[in-house]
Amino acid sequence: MAKGQYEAIIGLEIHAQLLTESKIFCGCSTTFGAEPNTQVCPVCIGMPGVLPVLNNKAVLYTIKTGLALNCRISPYSRFARKNYFYPDLPKGYQISQYELPLCEDGYLDIEIDGDIKRIGIIRIHLEEDAGKNIHDGEHSLVDLNRAGVPLMEIVTRPDIRSPKEAAQFMKRLRQILRYLGVCDGNMEQGSLRCDANVSVRPVGSTEFGVKTEIKNINSFRFVEKALEYEIERQIKVLDRGERIIQETRLWDSKTETTQSMRSKEEAHDYRYFPEPDLVPVEISKETVEGIKRTLPELPQQKVERFMKQYGLPAYDAMFVTEELSIAEWFERAVNLGGAPKTIANWIMGELSRLLNEENKGFEENPVTPEALVRLLKLIDEGTISQKIAKTVFEEVYKTGRSPEEIVREKGLIQITDESFIERSIEEVLNKAPKEVERYRAGEEKLLGFFVGQVMKLTKGKASPGLVNELLKKKLIGEGEKR
Ligand SMILES: [Zn+2]
Asked: Among 37, 90, 348, 365, which is 20 to 30 Å from 310 by CA?
């Protein structure tokens, strides 16, 4: 069968590290990058006799996420022990949620090729992270700084049909988590991780094929690449008349392939049972309503409002709401009196260009909305030209100085002195009598040539509008005198 006759069925399991200051069951710090085993205590290294105490903020953040993803918040949820042995898991079990998760049955709408597609969310539950094994030559070392860091696991329904949709879902989810301030979304540092379940089936079939699970996907690009590779691989297996083995596969970003890690026959029986050291989590309706009121305006609502309130085109509205920091910067500039579309253009144009050049994110943007609005005022007043404004903006970006100061110091003020411009025009016309003749004979496009010459003579500082106006007057006026 040809490739086009199969369709892919994809479900994602996303682990998001919560931005709490302390771990989920103890007071240890969650800061990334500390010396190994410096952020540990008897609770998170699994000493006998200690008791976990649930971090309320972790529960709050999970409920916020559940509400933003249209989930039902369970009035009663419970932690369970997931038993398995691994060197980075000192207790011999992970505390997770199993049959009673905190949030269930939600969805996230994503836009794909101009259409909206709804991706269902089965559940969101809370659990603790394990430590990290560091393999160093003959030795293996264990760092338990990460053990006990709160994780939220978000499980989608198998509603995703292409690698592109999967990547788009991840992007939109990350955007919401960052808007809510519950996860920094840093995939490289592992604070947002994605496993994907994928199977293929002949188009038209309603049964699911045998699925494989891909682990270790740590960038948006890899979500797409890993799924593309795995779908292709499964189709080839089926085309050879063989069967897909249900297994866990690891994405290898170096070879850009997935490799078999373990088959399902070797899968663990986790022997889940309710965690006896923690009381069940009870959430009242009032608590949920209270949290709902603290939710910020979410990306999709913001896009719609920006289009309506500021008249931005859809593309611009999506661009300036990509990050909350951009949206806030944009609105501040608008409130200071800048024209919305102009502000958006500067964000999408010069500002993005400069940030990209240095590979910086918007939160590292050194230009204030105040500076941009003052710059726009200088253009509106005719003090500087649009072209000079770009130079000034770059200088503001690099030095943090005010636009007025830069314009004054560099002598960039646009010349609007008519007698000065007239003198420059005369000089240009005197040097090009033939072109003047041709213009007067009807070759009107030569006007551009004259404007260019005058601008050159005035080092780009003459007001282009004025140059145009005075040139026409001069060329026509003196022609009529003859
Ligand atoms: Zn601890």
From this structure: 365
- Name which of 14-23, 266-275, 309-318 the model is least confident about: 266-275
Per-residue HEC secondary structure of the chain comes to CCHHHEEEEEEEEEEEECCCCECCCCCCECCCCCCCCCCCCCCCCCCCCCCCCCCHHHHHHHHHHHHHCCCEECCEECEEEEECCCCCCCCCEEEEECCCCCEEEEEEEEEECCEEEEEEEEEEEEEECCCEEEEECCEEEEECCCCCCEEEEEEECCCECCHHHHHHHHHHHHHHHHHHCCCCCCCCCCCEEEEEEEEEEECCCCCCCCCEEEEEECCHHHHHHHHHHHHHHHHHHHHCCCCCCCEEEEEECCCCEEEEEEEHHHCCCCCCEECCCCCCEECCHHHHHHHHHHCCCCHHHHHHHHHHHHCCCHHHHHHHCCCHHHHHHHHHHHHCCCCHHHHHHHHHHHHHHHHHHCCCCHHHCCCCHHHHHHHHHHHHCCCCCHHHHHHHHHHHHHHCCCHHHHHHHCCCCCECCHHHHHHHHHHHHHHCHHHHHHHHCCCCCHHHHHHHHHHHHCCCCECHHHHHHHHHHHHHHHHHHC
Which residues, in sequence order, are CB contacts of 473 under 8 Å at separation 6+? none
- C-alpha 41 to ligand 1 mean position (Å): 4
Instruction: Spell out which residues have Cβ within 5 A of ligand 1, the ion.
Output: 26, 28, 41, 43-44
* pLDDT, tens digit (0-9, with 9 covering 90-100), for 232-246: 999 999 999 999 999
CA-angle at 380, arms to 378 and 384, nearest 5°: 45
Which tens digits make up the pLDDT trace of 337-348? 999 999 999 999
Distance 133 CA to ligand 1 centre (A): 18
Domain assignments of the chain as residue spans, ordered by start: 3-290, 296-409, 418-481
State the pTM of this model.
0.84
Please give the pLDDT value at position 114.
85
Could you tell me the distance, in angstroms and rounded to a whole number, from the CA of residue 30 to the centre of ligand 1? 9
Contact 100, 126 (CB under 8 A): no
Tens-digit pLDDT profile for residues 391-448: 999 999 999 999 988 888 777 777 777 888 889 999 999 999 999 999 988 888 888 9
Residue 141: pLDDT band (50, 70, 90) is: very high
Q: Is 3 a residue whose pLDDT tops 60?
A: no
CA of 190 to the centre of ligand 1 (A): 20
CB 320 within 8 A of CB 372: no
Domain 418-481 CATH (choose: 1.10.10.410, 3.40.1620.10, 2.60.120.330, 3.40.1190.10): 1.10.10.410
